[in-house]
């Protein structure tokens, strides 16, 4: 009778399970990268001037002129108040919305709106 191998040892030899483990590791690494790169995107003072509902305005800077896809994604987190080149002005953004926006890899920076915009 051949010696029995343990379940973890047999699983480690399985090509299908190794592929699943690699895909899982890649997804976890991507999520970690999103968290790390989001750290420096939110400028100082964002969320300091909140309205009665706890929401505030932000300017979202992109590295390109926004297209329909980007505007629709930004609308999930606030009201679009206009655009100036690569900057989209959002109003009524919740703190959780800023966190979600910062995790988007195509957003460069989130700032407090300048006066007059």
Q: What report would you give on this structure?
A:
With 117 residues, the protein is an alpha+beta fold. It has 2 domains: 7-38; 56-111. Helix content is 40%, strand content 21%. It has helices spanning 7-13, 15-38, 68-75, 95-102, and strands at 56-62, 79-84, 87-93, 107-111. Strand 2 (79-84) and strand 3 form a beta hairpin. It is elongated. 14% of the residues are buried.
Which descriptors apply to this entry?
40% helix, elongated, alpha+beta, four-stranded antiparallel sheet, 117 residues, single chain
In terms of topology, how is this protein built?
Elements: H1 7-13, H2 15-38, E1 56-62, H3 68-75, E2 79-84, E3 87-93, H4 95-102, E4 107-111
Antiparallel strand pairs: 1-3, 1-4, 2-3
């Amino acid at each position: 009778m051949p010696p029995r191998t343990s379940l973890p040892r047999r699983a480690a030899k399985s090509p299908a399970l190794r592929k699943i483990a690699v895909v899982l590791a890649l997804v976890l690494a991507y999520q970690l990268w999103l968290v790390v790169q989001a750290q420096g995107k939110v400028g100082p003072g964002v969320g300091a001037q909140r309205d009665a509902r706890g929401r505030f305005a932000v300017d979202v800077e992109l590295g390109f002129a926004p297209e329909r896809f980007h505007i629709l994604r930004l609308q999930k987190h606030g009201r679009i108040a206009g655009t100036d080149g690569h900057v989209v002005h959002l109003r009524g953004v919740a703190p959780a919305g800023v966190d979600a926006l910062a995790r988007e890899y195509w957003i460069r920076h989130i700032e407090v709106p300048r006066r007059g915009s």
